[in-house]
Amino acid sequence: MAEPRLQRDDDVLLRVDVVGVCGSDVHTYLEGRIGGAKVTYPWILGHECAATVLATGPAAGGLKAGQRVAVDPLIPCNRCDQCLAGRKHTCRNQKFLASPGGAPGALVERLVMPAECCYPIPDSVTAVQAALAEPLSIGLHARNLAALRGGTAAILGSGPIGLCVLLALKEAGATRVFMTDLIDSRLELARRLGAERTHRGDRGDVLAAAEKAVPLGMDAVFECAGKQETIDQGVAMLAPGGTLVLVGIPAEDRISLDIHVARRRELAIQNVRRQNLCLAPALELVAKGKICVDPLATHHFDLDEAPRAFQTVAEYRDGVVKAMIHVTKQKLH
After folding, report:
1. Residue 14: enclosing H or E segment and its boundaries?
2. Would you call 81 helix, strand, or coil by DSSP?
3. In Å, what is the CA distance from 155 to each residue of 98, 176, 239, 251?
4. The pairing of beta strand 238-246 with beta strand 218-223
5. What distances in angstroms separate CA 58 from CA 62, 108, 292, one per listed residue?
6. What is the DSSP letter of 103?
7. Can you list the domains of the chain with their CATH numbers?
8. Cα(170)–Cα(266) distance, rounded to whole angstroms?
9. pLDDT per residue over 69-98, tens digit each?
10. 232 CB neighbour count, 10 Å cutoff
């Protein structure tokens, strides 16, 4: 593989320090696709990363060699109608790290990114925390789309993204959050992070448990598992006027819902497309101690152990929540 080099004035050459293994990476790893987009092999995975600046182009916006940065994996065109409307996450010409048809991923020693994708890491934030700010930014974006400040919510799926939604909701003052999953250790972590009640999804009546937690129904349900079963549960749990927030990525091309329940209760259905301008706020919340992401990083691997990291996540081994791959072997900040 050729050594990456600066091509544009605003390019930044990065030494990748740490990369988190994301569920979307695992989709690609296991199935060779994410949604309808298929991989052409060979392909490089990884997009949740923190890095150190090695060199910059003359228009790199003040970034300097030696500076630590968190990386927004989305490269927008900055010209289309979506970018000009402030929706870079739905850019019509976007490149996204490790996304099929996008840009190669971050599981490399050197990476070139536009300066606008590189956010300085505050001194109080570690490289691992900075990499975790990327999934946290999705939680913040999902919360913002639901316009939920306080109130009641259910999160269906207590993986890394579901837990990041929980952290975002608790920071915003949500008083009652009900969470489900199929793994006891994840439910235990959800309770530690502030979930009022949890329920093992394959044991007992999930809907009855949710009704017991919030008898009049949820203001919002965040579906973070990408499963038809949890989508159906989400619709049934919502109070009239509530919002179903679809965060999870289904393996299937089509899903369905009970339109009569959705219509009678006048439910809103909100899809989530990654995040939009939430990485900087996520870093700030971590830096100020308002959100602690440390419990999410349960497993650590060197770069040459990446296949084991992916298998660990894919098979839900050993209580894994988030596996972090340390590309740079020297001690990280």
Report:
1. strand 11-20
2. helix
3. 27, 11, 15, 19
4. parallel
5. 9, 24, 36
6. B
7. 11-120+293-326 (3.90.180.10), 140-271 (3.40.50.720)
8. 26
9. 999 999 999 999 999 999 999 999 999 999
10. 17
> In sequence order, what are the beta bridge partners of 192?
none
Q: Which amino acid is at 84?
A: L
The tokens for 47 are 């997009």
What is the pTM assigned to this prediction?
0.95
Task: Inform me whether the pLDDT recorded for 331 exceeds 50.
Answer: no
pLDDT by residue (tens digit) across 110-161?
999 999 999 999 999 999 999 999 999 999 999 999 987 778 999 999 999 9
Query: What per-residue confidence (pLDDT) applies to 1?
Result: 62
CB 178 within 8 A of CB 210: yes
Torsions phi, psi for 87 (to 5 deg): -120, 60
Residue type, 187: L
Amino acid at 119: Y
- The radius of gyration of the chain from alpha carbons, rounded to an integer in Å, stands at 20
Question: What tokens does 279 get?
Answer: 């990485």
Collapsing DSSP states into helix, strand and coil, what is residue 154? strand
From 84, 87, 138, 100, select the one nearest 246 (Cα to Cα).
Answer: 138
Whether pLDDT at 32 is above 80: no
Residue 164 CA to residue 275 CA, distance in Å, equals 12
Q: Which residues contact 278 (CB under 8 A, 6 or more apart)?
A: 137, 138, 140, 141, 144
Place of tokens 């990327």: 134
